[in-house]
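Predict the 3D structure for this chain.
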Amino acid sequence: MAKHLLILVAVIAAITAAASVAARAGGILHVFPPQVEGETFAVARPTVLLSKTLVTVSEGATEFRFNQTFFNNNEYPVQGLFLMPLGPEPPRAEPDVNIDGITTPSRVFSPKDFFPLLKELTIRMHDPSLLGLAGQYVLVVRPVNMGVKQQRSFKVKYELRWASSRDELELAVALAGERYALGPVGELELRVRFKAARPIRSLFSPTHHLSMFRESPHRSQILVRSQGTRVLRDFLLVAFFSGDNLDVRVLTHREPGEPGAFLAAIAPPLAPSGASGPDKDVVFLLDCSGSMGTENLRVARSAVKFCLERLGPDDRFNIVTVGTRAEKMAPSLVQATSKNILDAVNHLNAIGDCGGTDLYNGIITALEQFQTRKRPSIVVVVGDGQSTVGITDPDRIVTDLRRNNRVDARFFVLAVGAHPDVALLDRIATATKGRSTQFSQHHDVESFMNRFFAGVSPPRVSGISLRFDIVKPEYVSPDPIPDLFGDDSVLVLGRYATKGNVNARVRLRGALQGKTQTVARFFQFPLSDPHHSYIPQLWAMRRLATLLETEWLKGADEAVRREAKELTERYGFRTPPRVEKFRRQGDSAGMPRDLGSLLWTLKKSVVPADVQSDAFRHVDGKVFRREETRWVDTRYRGDMPTTRVEFFGDEYFKLLEQTPELGPFLAIGPEVTIVDKERAVATMIRDR
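Done. Predicted structure below.
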């Protein structure tokens, strides 16, 4: 029996323990339509050619550096003003502003002082797009002149404070100018550097796919990059800080009158400096079939080479290629010497199109390489998982994998390809308590592969469980909680219902090197909590995945269908394919590609935008559905008390001034219905 080691940490993590730094980055270049002899000409908003943001987070302060280049698309010169929202708190000092290399005077308006200017600009252009600036400190540069087809470059630097004594940081960078430009942004780069006194335990973004570079426990760098892409949402990064041990943090969100949702971030203990882990046996299972295509096969070969170069000198390895036949590089495992790795690279370079995909025999061949339990056994699967030769039934593949896995080898899957069979690949990883992930164009190759291979190892923590005192969680996912590999944390989502504010103890238990550790912390599960509005969407993604998988495995069920439809409409997800349609087709290859791909994303992604429908708009945690000319909050019910205000009327601006947090929602358009607590606000165009 494992010796029990109890670590009890009684910490009250109140709602206010979350520190927020909201930088409304991305300045807006707002230009006015010219008038000639009383005639007003239409004006195109300037294009954003370049947007570079550098955020440096250190103890107690966050420095922001913004670099934007705008281009005047109009056939005439324009005049306007530059607006940079700075967030709800004033900067530590007056921002430095530089335009085309010249230091330029500016003024920071308080929310109260800026409101008259905001009203004037909005009415003048008869456009609500700027109303999201309400309630913000705003930097203003005016006037700004741009010649015909001219470009102007703006650089702004400032600092904001944050309470570094707190364990959680939400860093918000609202890309206001990039969204306001409407068109694609030529080059977008957003970089966040952490220089922390305490270890950075967990990092994730519910808005963007991240490339992460972890230099040390106290130093990390985050990168988001795109080219020629429209910017539709702001950037949000969540970071947790703590000590060296196994750790859990809980965040909540709850709308009045609804169940609450929680997110628990579980982080493994920090690895000792310079620790390399135990010697291991690794088989690389490489899909070289025709379905991979030339480019994806190149990516797959590069991924295997990357892993080979990071093997320890006492590790052993082999390569099994999966095509019409499964073929081994060597008869048995070889030592990871420099010569053997060079020979393996040459072997990989010679691999071309191998025909079909006998995945079943590839798996069995890989398992035959392992002869002992004394060394960790690992299979790294790289490919699209489209089984086309030999035994192709997914249930048979997974069943025989379990039966033949006599050394408890763990499978780590890297899905590569235009249309990978992600459903089958995930089942293979789950059946062996491994991990699956998918490579896409969102990722920086080096940082992605570093994180992937760091987890290709025996688990740091296994047998993980969460227990909640007082609070009874519902629909928790993932269940069971997977093992922790490398430095990566795992996010657990669920719902809760309480009759009041509850301060509950959460116990995390897991096995580390054969010893059980328990960490206990106190967290508040409130009756109402407006923070962390992304959590219900993430929970709904996991819940919808469970419902679709249940329907696929057990057949149609009206209650399951109804709940899936309600979640889809409430959170604006893409409509899932009808499962029974695929069942009628009798597809022996298993779960269809469309359904499997959606399931993978619902289960794995922490970016709700990956599954959101174009028929919905997502703004600051709210979801709006298009109904003819009106955007309607999906929480709206016809029996709700509703206040109707005239678009751009006196009551409209009075409402905005009194409740500036409604600004981002009013900015959607002239006609919008917003649910605020248990009432609704509907804006109306006159005479409609």
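The CA atoms of residues 31 and 80 lie 4 Å apart.
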